[in-house]
Amino acid sequence: MSESSCDGGRWLDAHYDPVAGLYTFSSCVDLADLSGDGESRLLVGDLGSGSSGMKLKVFRGTALLSESTLLDLPTGLVAFFMDLHEPRIPAVAVASGPCVYVYKNLRPYFKFTLPGLEVNTLEQDVWQQAREGHIDPVTLKEMLEGVREKADVPLSVRSLRFLSLETSDMDEFVQLHKQQPIRRQTVITCIGTLKKSTADEDGVSCLVIGTESSDVYVLDPEAFIILSKMSLPAPPTMMDVTGQFDVEFRVTVACRNGNIYILRRDSDKPKYCVELSSHPVGLVRVGKSVVVGCTDESLQGFTQKGKRLWRTILPAPITTMAAMDLPTRGFQAVLVGLANCDVQLYRDKNLLSTIKTPDVVTSICFGRYGREDGTLIMTTKGGGMMVKILKRTATFDDRDSAPGPPLAQGVRLNVPKKTKLYVDQTLRERENGVAMHRAFQMDLSRMRLAAAKAYVKALESSLAPVSSSLSEPLKMNAVVQGLGPSFKLTLNVQNTAACRPVMNLAVSFLYDESLYRMRNPYMRIPLLVPGLVYPVETFVECTSDKGISDIIKVFVLHEGKSRPLLTAHINMPVSEGLTLH
Amino acid sequence: MEVSMDPLFLAWSYFRRRKLQQCSDICSKILHDNPYDQDSSLCVSEAVWSLKTRALTEMVYIDEIEVDQEGIAEMMLDESSIAQVARPGTSLRLPGTSQGGGPTPAVRPMTQSGRPITGFVRPSTQSGRPGTMEQAIKTPRTSSTARPVTSASGRFIRLGTASMLTNPDGPFINLSRINLAKYSQKPNLSRALFEYIFHHENDVKNALDLAAQATEHAQFKDWWWKVQLGKCYYRLSLYREAEKQFRSALNHQEVVDTYLYLAKVYQRLDQPITALNLFKQGLDHFPGEVTLLTGIARIHEEMNNISSATEYYKDVLKQDNTHVEAIACIGSNHFYTDQPEIALRFYRRLLQMGVYNCQLYNNLGLCCFYAQQYDMTLSSFERALALVDNDEEQADVWYNIGHVAVGVGDLTLAYQCFKLALAFNNDHAEAYNNLAVLELRKGRVEQSKAFLQTAASLAPHMYEPHFNLSILSEKIGDLQSSYTAAQKSEDAFPEHVDTQQLLKQLRQHFAAL
């Protein structure tokens, strides 16, 4: 009950099954009264593992009522009334690949396939020649490549597959496929419903389909013929439809180029266009405004004509969005699933409440389930299913739940008080200011001298592990690993020049031979490419069991010069183990 | 004629004057003249034997309560820890966020384990617990900061071998041939023998045997033996058994030492809250006991609760106004809470007490500089430079002079100082970081980048190199590297506002179309 308590107790936890095995998105979930008994069922197009196990699942209450296998990944699922027969039982349309499968009474009823696209005539000619045996596969490949570069109409899937094959597999592929005619097929990206002529709840609806070929089709519900075709500048990804086909309708489409287009009845081109600053991930219509969630963790509201009304920043990336419509109370809001395991409820830009979930929510569906009007169904990333019921007494305040001035305004800065001692010292400064300044300046000059002397000494003996000379700007740091008596010594040498490599370098060590034994005390360093770290490794053995340690000096030398370029001092750790004899 | 003193009395006198080697020599001579097994002078030779045992023990005696360092094996292969993710404020392993409202890492530097550095170096606070095995092995385990593999092997074995060297003829007592049962019956000998076995021979198993038999002989009523049993169990890492023995000893007799041992057990079991309660219980019996108060302060400090640690250190000073650790810790806390003038007072107090070393002058110099007493700043550093013992200290002094140079705007001097810090200590990550910033100002991006990467690899717990690298990468347009570096900076210091802003900016950049 902890989840509901943080939301002010507005939701009842009806059911939570963390291992329901449902993998789906909001576009593939719908609620419908499939048997006409006034009890709504939950329809889920399950994506399975992504390659197998795709299923259409129907839930009643907490139990799985039926499931039927789908041939391909579902991209969308809608329930709609396709005729006027009594009892009023809706059909289910599942969009998958290039087809829409229509189920009635949970039995396959009809399959609608999208019309094929125009095929490149040149490509057709080339395959024709191949069929007649005029050209061999290699020539075919060359010609197809030529066609691909020049033509306006893209190649078919078959030709593209052929072009990607190895030469050895080509012959077989041609033999297998040359008899079939070439087809160019597109796939469905999103699906929606549009009332045909009446605005009734159970009026007959048309299917609205968005395709990869940047088209939007409206289908007749009985004959499944294309009533209207509209084209977009980019492939659609999400869609919202409102209105009636015979009167006036409006299709809001979010496209893959990051724009939102609004289509009207009278034109087959978009009427309005909204250019977003980042990609849309969710599109929901609330009343007359459109709410869009974007990848930059923002939620934006637009009018029907594409004018932005508001924008609000979310605490985490959006995973899914859905509308919450409660007509009995006249309440409309947007549910937003976030990657930080929150589901937030927004009315316009105001955050009304937050639901904490045990896992990241991937799909949300709100509506009538069973006999309960306000039911929220969510599935999670881990395959869990959650059902919550809105309490009948629940109320939502119309203002933001985080109101008032920003929190930072109330935080007091922790400024320490100045002490009496400090005041006394400032008095001293005021009285002896000149003397203090002189003393400091003299000390500073002496310190500069001392530092310069020490610096020159360090430079002369190349004590530093960094060399900034113009010819060999190098840097080295050493790491000792191990517990002893064997240690691994790693020298990380780096050339810090902008573009010049350094060559002819060697590493040598200076150590107490009565304490340490080194596997190779002289090593050559390969050519150093600027910017990369070159690890040079060697092994050191401690030969003493007295528990003492010493410094090992590492020199980086240039061939032919006796003065080292770099020196590093390694404070060896005390050897913990004893050598085995 | 010369009247010679009774040799046994002379030895006793040497022992009291802590001339232990002479005492041991005389005892050896007496024992050589009349061997121990003869019945005639049993009483005398027993006394001599006991005295020599004590002298040998005193030579290598170390305070069990203070010297304690968790070895790598204890930290990484810890079997007694139950909750991997303890609730904040209940565990020493989880540094957590500062609860006492102390300064952030932006003001007060952190150690590798994520605790603010203290004003006083102690074995257990030296470098904290490393996160991974590789980090544990890789951390510069030099002779000055060595972390032993296990507390049972490292330091104690070294002490044991050191005592072997002093006796070339072999050990004074041959433990394998000694009849422990016989000695355990003799209370006047057994205690000296136990301490000899425990401290000098470092043979915990035999010591445990002897203690077990002796406590049985005393019918489990002698608190001293129970404490010794507890010490043995503690050394063998049998913490629960040690706890039982110490608890039982406390029932017989309230002793401050026992409280301290028991608190050590609880700290090892990662139960700081229990240890705190125990210390408070001890304070009820021994009000104002300095060691107990210090123990409480240390635990608060380890748990990142600096303000209450300071309160307890102040209590310590009320009892003992020459307590170096308390003065140093309060001083450093004042320094990092923007009151360097008060810190200066505390460090001057240390100077008056006769603490005269490089670290103190180093701190004095910094306090003078930040308290605007410029005339004494650089002379303090000069003295610190004159007092250095090793290269690490020299590197630290040069690093601090570099800070002063940055403060007065002399970047050439600063550059030289940071370079010198690196020359004396090749692993000085802070110097690498500051040098990188100076290089960047000179426009040498490649060098700056290389230095920052080195600093980040040397000290992954510092957020500054990651943050600087992130800014640098962002400026040269390498947003991906900038983002990864910023994330590392966020891991090291989650509350850092600039990192958060940079991350936000980068995320917006990535999300934009």
TrEMBL record, chain A:
InterPro entries assigned: BBS1, BBS1_N, GAE_BBS1
Main location: membrane
Biological processes, Gene Ontology terms: non-motile cilium assembly; protein localization to cilium; protein transport; retina homeostasis; sensory perception of smell; visual perception
Subcellular location: Cell projection, Cilium membrane; Cytoplasm, Cytoskeleton, Microtubule organizing center, Centrosome, Centriolar satellite
GO molecular function, one term: patched binding
Stored Pfam families: BBS1, GAE_BBS1
Bardet-Biedl syndrome 1 protein GAE domain mapped to chain residues: 474-576
Record keyword ATP-binding present: no
Top-rank lineage group of the source organism: Eukaryota
A GO cellular component annotation in the UniProt record: BBSome
Domain Bardet-Biedl syndrome 1 N-terminal, first and last residues per copy: 11-264
Database matches in PANTHER family: BARDET-BIEDL SYNDROME 1 PROTEIN
Subunit note: Part of BBSome complex, that contains BBS1, BBS2, BBS4, BBS5, BBS7, BBS8/TTC8, BBS9 and BBIP10. Interacts with the C-terminus of RAB3IP. Interacts with CCDC28B and ALDOB. Interacts with PKD1.
Name this polypeptide is given: BBSome complex member BBS1
Organism from which the protein derives: Solea senegalensis
Upper lineage: Eukaryota, Metazoa, Chordata, Craniata, Vertebrata
From TrEMBL, chain B:
Superkingdom as given in the UniProt entry: Eukaryota
Biased composition range(s): Polar residues: 140-150
Matches recorded under CDD domains: TTC8_N
UniProt keyword Membrane present: no
Region annotated Disordered, chain positions: 92-150
Pfam families for the chain: TPR_8
Any one GO CC term of the record: non-motile cilium
InterPro entries reported for this sequence: BBS8, TPR_rpt
Key word Lyase present: no
SMART domains, sorted: TPR
TPR repeat intervals: 358-391, 395-428
An annotated GO BP: non-motile cilium assembly
Keywords: TPR repeat
PANTHER family the UniProt entry points to: TETRATRICOPEPTIDE REPEAT PROTEIN 8
Protein's UniProt name: Tetratricopeptide repeat protein 8 isoform X1
